[in-house]
Amino acid sequence: MGFDAEGYGFPEHQRTLARLIDDIRVLSPAGVERAAQGWERHARLHEKEVHESEKAALRAIERADRGPAWDEVRRNLFGMTESGQALVSWKAEHGDVGHKAEQAAFMAALGLVAGNLISNEQFNTLVRPMSEAMPWLLPEENQPA
Questions:
Q1: First CA to last CA across the chain, in angstroms?
Q2: Average of pLDDT values for 73-78?
Q3: Residue 117 confidence (pLDDT)
Q4: Sign of the dihedral through C-alpha 22, 26, 29, 33
Q5: Taken in order 130, 135, 138, 144, is the CA torsion positive or negative?
Q6: What mean pLDDT do residues 106-132 have?
Q7: DSSP 115
Q8: 3-class secondary-structure state, position 2
């Protein structure tokens, strides 16, 4: 196993749900802010595309019988970001910033659960906001200039 550009112990460019969840667990308050900025920058400006990609992913997940997996992911994310047991970094950024970051996290998770059941463009639309905090989600777009 190598280390990617961010220094994590996942194989370079591996985009998995497990990696997203692990990274959310250790995301700092600054990372939560970056995710919220990503939501503002990408999702708010391209609201129609995000909504269409979300609908396509949910339809694909249901057709492929991945609904229970998506429900479990949503429960886990909610527990880490919103519940009384929320992680410290998410509690620190509670409010508008936290909610925007949470939306970015949910959309990234949705994209990863749907995976190859949706188009590459739809996947990218869903994970792009969270890639502000986790560049490995879209490595081709987050290369240094």
A1: 26
A2: 87
A3: 95
A4: negative
A5: positive
A6: 95
A7: G
A8: coil
Whether the Cβ atoms of residue 2 and residue 94 lie closer than 8 Å to each other? no
d(CA 14, CA 10): 7
Look at 13-27, 38-52, 78-92 and tell me which has the smallest mean pLDDT: 78-92
CB 17 within 8 A of CB 109: yes
Confidence of residue 96 (pLDDT cuts 50, 70, 90): confident
Q: Enter the DSSP assignment of 11.
A: P
Tokens 């936290």 sit on residue: 98
Q: Would you kindly state where each structural domain of the chain is located, as residue ranges? A: 17-137
Task: Give the three-class secondary structure for 135.
Answer: helix
Residue 89 has a pLDDT of 61
Q: Please, where are the H alpha helices in the chain? A: 17-26, 29-38, 47-63, 67-81, 88-92, 96-114, 120-127
